[in-house]
UniProtKB/TrEMBL annotation:
<feature type="transmembrane region" description="Helical">
    <location>
        <begin position="12"/>
        <end position="31"/>
    </location>
</feature>
<feature type="transmembrane region" description="Helical">
    <location>
        <begin position="181"/>
        <end position="200"/>
    </location>
</feature>
<comment type="similarity">
    <text>Belongs to the binding-protein-dependent transport system permease family. HisMQ subfamily.</text>
</comment>
<dbReference type="InterPro" id="IPR010065">
    <property type="entry name" value="AA_ABC_transptr_permease_3TM"/>
</dbReference>
<dbReference type="Pfam" id="PF00528">
    <property type="entry name" value="BPD_transp_1"/>
</dbReference>
<feature type="transmembrane region" description="Helical">
    <location>
        <begin position="212"/>
        <end position="233"/>
    </location>
</feature>
<keyword id="KW-1003">Cell membrane</keyword>
<keyword id="KW-1133">Transmembrane helix</keyword>
<feature type="domain" description="ABC transmembrane type-1">
    <location>
        <begin position="33"/>
        <end position="233"/>
    </location>
</feature>
<keyword id="KW-0813">Transport</keyword>
<dbReference type="InterPro" id="IPR051613">
    <property type="entry name" value="ABC_transp_permease_HisMQ"/>
</dbReference>
<dbReference type="InterPro" id="IPR000515">
    <property type="entry name" value="MetI-like"/>
</dbReference>
<protein>
    <submittedName>
        <fullName>ABC transporter permease subunit</fullName>
    </submittedName>
</protein>
<feature type="transmembrane region" description="Helical">
    <location>
        <begin position="109"/>
        <end position="128"/>
    </location>
</feature>
<dbReference type="InterPro" id="IPR035906">
    <property type="entry name" value="MetI-like_sf"/>
</dbReference>
<feature type="transmembrane region" description="Helical">
    <location>
        <begin position="37"/>
        <end position="61"/>
    </location>
</feature>
<keyword id="KW-0997">Cell inner membrane</keyword>
């Protein structure tokens, strides 16, 4: 029994020294986590803009706009996210290289990994956010919209004061789920060389030939980020639903 306890103690001590010691990797892991959060936020915001336009096209657009929006959401929700990342990275790099050749450059010009991540995550999440916004709009009380029109409220004013606040109110739970999805998808950006959490974990595991401590630490960090952001979305939902019957 004492041998087992001693063995477990040695493992824990070694883990603490490896991650949190004087020459530990915790600094690089946290730096990678920060990059993960940044690229996720960028992708989420970009996706929100894209999703808003797509939702508008589905709700109020013409036949062509609705068709394009439906094709976009169908394709982006059906294609693996990694393929979208590769498409943006290699396609964008090929485009930049072609432009450089027009100006006499023969060098390969790669699209920055961070921009690739933001664009890819944004385009993918935009398809999901569009459906969230469309569903939230469907939950609006048609009586309020008709009342606003009956008193002569301008369309832009009605959009700012009635539609946007209430759509966001009903969209928060769905947006929270999409945010969690983006956090997980951000790990895929490591294939482009972005130094985020998974990239650092893989690099540390390769350098020390001790994969378990670093991948375990990465899991813990991801769970902490998920828990904190989930708590934040829950608070926003509670605040947004104040005064709503049944909330």
């Amino acid at each position: 029994m004492e041998t087992i306890i001693g063995y477990i103690t040695d493992i824990i001590t070694g883990y603490i020294e490896l991650i949190f010691g004087a020459n530990g990797w915790i600094g690089m892991l946290l730096s990678g986590a920060g990059m993960t959060i940044l690229v996720a936020i960028g992708g989420f915001c970009f996706g929100g803009v894209v999703g808003s336009f797509v939702a508008w096209a589905k709700i109020a657009g013409g036949t062509t706009a609705r068709t394009v929006a439906n094709i976009y959401t169908t394709i982006l929700r059906g294609v693996p996210d990694l393929l979208i990342i590769y498409l943006f990275y290699f396609g964008g790099s090929a485009l930049l290289t072609s432009i450089g050749q027009m100006f006499g450059s023969n060098a390969f010009i790669g699209l920055p990994s961070f921009i690739t991540g933001v664009m890819a995550l944004g385009i993918v999440s935009g398809a999901y956010q569009a459906e969230v916004f469309r569903g939230a709009y469907s939950a609006l009380s048609k009586g309020e919209l008709e009342a606003a029109k009956s008193v002569g409220m301008h369309r832009n004013l009605m959009f700012r004061r009635i539609i946007v606040p209430q759509v966001l109110r009903y969209a928060i739970p769905g947006l929270g789920n999409i945010w969690q999805l983006i956090l997980k998808q951000s790990a895929l950006i490591s294939v482009t060389g972005l130094i985020e959490l998974l990239f650092v974990s893989r690099m540390a595991a390769s350098a020390t030939r001790m994969p378990f401590p670093f991948y375990f630490t990465a899991i813990v960090i991801y769970l902490v980020i998920t828990a904190v952001s989930g708590w934040g979305f829950k608070k926003m939902e509670q605040r947004a639903m104040r005064g709503v019957k049944g909330a």
